[in-house]
Each structure stands twice: as structure tokens, then as C-alpha cells.
Design brief:
By secondary structure, the chain is mostly helical. It is 86% helix and 0% strand. The protein is built from six helices and no strands.
Length: 155
């Protein structure tokens, strides 16, 4: 899913420059790679092979688009992006550990499915926000900033 999301952003960077040909050509190459990998992997892995082939090809497409953008723009702040990716990965891992723990506890306690899901979602959200705040994720601050600006504008 990360690759698919990043693909939309990377392609739109080209579209904003009124360049639709470059992403199309890159997509065509990686579509061929996806088909080839899908054929190879489906024999041994079944449908999971198709999913893996798609993920590998989409990731390759995104990396190729970013490489072209980096050369075109003379840099894309790769170190800052990588550092932020590390913080997001750690925050997500913390959330995952908390969710797994809460779900296991809720199931042992015999809570119904609705309460189990609600407990997991609430704990996951709290863990993500808490870990993100501790690690300094800027993306968690902008919704609050927007709300505070709107509130100040109304008053």
C-alpha cells in the first residue's frame, strides 16, 4: 500500500510540471516487469506471487520516478525523507505492538467482537499519536495547527 500511495504522489509531481509522458513510459516498463514477475511467481506462490510481483513492480516504479525527479530538480531532500520514514516506521511498530497486545487481552477477557475492535482501534490511535509525538512527527501537528488557526479566525 505504501508503494501505491507514493506512486500517486510521485506521478502528480510530473503532472504538475505538465509532463505526462515520462510517468507513462516508466509505468509501461514496470507493468511489463509486473507481468513477467507475476507469471514467474504465480507458479510457486499462487495468488500471493501476483501480489508480490505487483508490490515489487510498483515499488520499482516509484523509485524510478523519484530518481528522475531527483535528477530533474537537483535533489529531493532524500536524507530528510529517509529520517522521517524511520520515525514513521518506529511509530507504526509501536502502534502494532500495542494493538496486538490489546487484541490478545480483549480476546482473553472474552469481550465481544465490537468491543475488541474498538479497544484495538482506540489503543492503536493513542499509541500512534503518543509515539509520534515523542518522535517528533511533524505530520501529526498540522491538523491541530489548522484547527487552531480556524478557531482563531472565528473568534
Amino acid at each position: 500500500l505504501v508503494g501505491h500511495s507514493a506512486l500517486e504522489l510521485a506521478a502528480r509531481a510530473f503532472f504538475a510540471q505538465q509532463d505526462t509522458v515520462t510517468p507513462l513510459l516508466i509505468a509501461a516498463v514496470w507493468a511489463a516487469v509486473s507481468i513477467g514477475l507475476g507469471i514467474l511467481l504465480m507458479g510457486t506462490m499462487g495468488h500471493a506471487g501476483l501480489a508480490l510481483a505487483n508490490s515489487v513492480a510498483i515499488t520499482g516504479e516509484v523509485l524510478t520516478l523519484l530518481f528522475v525527479l531527483r535528477r530533474r530538480w537537483a535533489g529531493i531532500e532524500g536524507r530528510a525523507i529517509l529520517a522521517n520514514l524511520g520515525r514513521v516506521a518506529l511509530t507504526s511498530a509501536a502502534m502494532g505492538v500495542v494493538v496486538v497486545g490489546v487484541l490478545a487481552g480483549a480476546e482473553r477477557a472474552g469481550l465481544g467482537a465490537l468491543y475488541t475492535v474498538a479497544a484495538g482501534a482506540g489503543a492503536g490511535l493513542a499509541a500512534y499519536l503518543g509515539a509520534g509525538a515523542l518522535l517528533g512527527l511533524r505530520e501529526l501537528r498540522w491538523p491541530l495547527d489548522v484547527l487552531l488557526r480556524r478557531r482563531a479566525a472565528v473568534e
